[in-house]
Amino acid sequence: MPRQIVFTTKAAKPPSTYSQAVKAAGLVFVSGTGPADPDSGKIIGTTIQEQTRQCLTNIQAILEEAGSSLEKVVSATVILAEEDDFGGMNEEWLKWFPENPPARQGAKLPVRIPGLKVSIAVIAEA
Known about the structure:
CATH 3.30.1330.40, alpha+beta, six-stranded mixed β-sheet
C-alpha cells in the first residue's frame, strides 16, 4: 500500500506543517489532534473532559475517513498541559475505550497554547 495522506473536513484542519493522518504499511498514523471545532477552528470546552471528548470526536472522523475506526486503535499518546488533568482525561477516555483499550503513553505539552488542555495522537489498523 503506498503512503496516503488522509484529510477530512469533519475534523479540525491541521497547520500546514503536518497532515491530519497518514495511511501506510497497513496502519493509520493520526497526528496530535486538539479539541478544535472543525468549522471554526476554535477550541471547544473548558474542562479536560470536554476537550478530551472533542479530541476523540476529531480522531474518530479522521479514522473513518481513512477507512478505520476507534475500535482499531492500537496505540495512543495523550499530551496534557497540566498533569492535574490526568484523572479527568481518564474519566472521559474510559467512555470511549471501556474494554480492551489501546496501549497508551502520556507526556506534558511542550508549548502553551491559550485554552488548550490536551492533544491526542493515535495509531490504528487501517
